[in-house]
Amino acid sequence: MLSEQSTPVIRASLPAVGAAIGDITELFYRKLFDAHPELLRDLFNRGNQANGEQQRALAGSIAAFAGMLLEGPDARPDTLLARIAHKHASLGITSDQYKIVHRHLFAAITEVLGDAVTPEVAAAWDEVYWLMANALIAVEARLYQEAGAAEGEVWHRMEIVERRQETPDAVSFVLRRSDGSPTAPFRPGQYVSVQVQLPDGARQIRQYSLSAAPGRADWRITVKRVRAGNGNDAAGGQPDGEVSNWLCAQARTGDELTVSVPFGDLVLPEGDTPLLLASAGIGVTPMVSMLDHLAAGGSARPVTVLHADRTPADHAHRGEQRRLVGALPDARLHLWYEQPDDQAPEASTGRVALDTVDLPPGLTAYLCGPLPFMRAVRGDLLRRGVPAEAIHYEVFGPDLWLGQ
Question: Which residues, at least 6 apart from 166, have a Cβ–Cβ distance to it below 8 Å?
Fold first, then answer.
C-alpha cells in the first residue's frame, strides 16, 4: 500500500512524528473547532475532548496505521479500519469531512514540527493520511449501502415505548420507529448512536449497544450514568456524562429520540464453535444481546459467560443474564463482584481470574467493559493459549487500546 519512495521517509520520520503526535493532535482539534465550532457542539463528544481521550485515540490510530504500513506495505489493517469505520458510520460521517480534517491536521503538523516538515516528509505523510482516509471512506460507503442509507443519512426518530430502571444507575429503553416502519435488522453485539439535544442547544451523540436479540419488533438500549471521577466503567477521569445523565434523568415513555441505524463489528458469528463472552459493568449489554439470540435459536454451542461488577445490585440485566444462560444446554456463568452479598452467593470476590475457569479448545472470545478489565482478560487468554485473532473487543468511547 505505501509507495516505495514514501516508505523510507515514513520510517525515518515516524519517531519524530510519534514523539510530537500528542501536541499535533491537540493543536489540530483546536484549529478544527475554531474553524468549525458546530463539530464540537453537534458531533464530537465534548467529555472526551475535555479529558483528552479523543486526542489520544486519534494519535494512536495515526501512529498505529503508519506502523502497520511499515510492517506490511502490501497489507491493509482491516481490523483497525473496520472499528473506526463503524463508529464513523454511526455518527453519519461523510467523505467531504476527511478533507476538512486533512487541512487542519497538516496545518498542525507543520506548525509543531516546523522545518522538519520538508516537502518529502509532507508528501509521505500526506500519502499515509489519504491511504487511511480513502480506505475508511470505502468501508463506510459499503456500510451505508448495507444499511440502505445514503452517505451520512443514518438518522430516524424513535419513540420510547418502555422505560425500566435496571439498577440505581442504569436504565433500559425500548424503542419503536415513530413513523410505524419496522426496525432495521442488526447482528447481535451491534450498537446504535443516540443524538440528544442538551439544555445549551448542543446536539451530542453517544453509542449504546442493542441489549436484546435481533428479530424483535422493537429495539432496546441500556444506558448507565457516567459519573465524574468515580471510576465508572466508561468514565475514568472524565466529567459527568452529558448524554447518559440526561437520558437517565429526563427521557420518559412517550418521548422521541433521534437514533441511527445499527453498526458495530463486534458481532456474534454463525456456527458451532465454543464462545467466551466476558464483560464488566455496562459492558454486559452486547453480551445479553448475544445470549438472547443464542437462546431464541435453541443453540447448543458451548458458551462460557464471565461478568464482573461492583455489587450484584450494580449488575445490569443480572436476572436476565442468569435466565438466558440457564436456557442454553451447554452454558456456564461465572461471576465476580468487588462486594458480593447473599443475592449471588456463588460469585467470587474481586477481579476476574481465568485460572479458575475451564476453557474449551477452539473458542472465540468477545470482551466488553473498561479497558483495564479487557487488557487483563485478553492477557490471561493469550497466556492460556487462545490465539490473538480469536479475541475480539468493543470499546465504549475512544479506542485507546490501539497497538497494545
Answer: 172, 222, 316, 317
Cα-Cα-Cα-Cα dihedral sign, residues 232, 234, 237, 241: negative
Residue 144 appears among annotated catalytic residues: no
Residue of 29, 53, 98, 166 marked catalytic: 98
Pairing of strands 364-368, 391-394: parallel
Q: Which three cell numbers stand for residue 56?
A: 489520544
Answer yes or no: are the C-beta atoms of 402 and 64 closer than 8 Å: yes
pLDDT digit string, tens, across residues 334-391: 999 999 998 888 899 999 999 989 999 999 999 999 989 999 999 999 999 999 999 9
Q: In what order do the strands lie in the sheet with 391-394?
A: 348-349, 331-337, 303-309, 275-280, 364-368, 391-394
Closest C-alpha among 346, 342, 343 to residue 332: 346
Q: Is 302 helix (H, G, I), strand (E, B) or coil?
A: coil
Is residue 198 within 8 A of residue 288, CB to CB? The reply is: no
All domains in the chain, ordered by first residue: 6-146 (1.10.490.10), 155-260 (2.40.30.10), 275-394 (3.40.50.80)
Q: Are 290 and 212 in contact (CB under 8 A)?
A: no
- Planar angle of CA 161, 166, 171, nearest 5 degrees: 50
| Grid cell of 51 as nine digits | 479529558
pTM for this model (two decimals): 0.92
CA separation for the pair 8, 14 (Å, rounded): 10
Q: Answer yes or no: 151 catalytic.
A: no
Burial of 99 (0-12, 13-18, 19+ CB in 10 A): exposed
Between helix 6-35 and helix 96-113 the angle, nearest 10°, is 110
How many other C-beta atoms lie within 10 A of the C-beta of residue 12? 12
| DSSP3 helix / strand / coil % (the chain, rounded to 5) | 45, 20, 35
Are the C-beta atoms of residues 101 and 62 closer than 8 Å to each other? no
pLDDT tens-place string over residues 255-268: 999 999 999 999 99
Residues in Cβ contact with 293 at an 8 Å cutoff, skipping those fewer than 6 apart: 188, 213, 214, 215, 268
Instruction: Label residue 372 left, alpha or beta by phi (over 0 means left) and psi (-120 to 50 means alpha).
Output: alpha
Q: Which of 29, 53, 127, 140 is catalytic?
A: 140
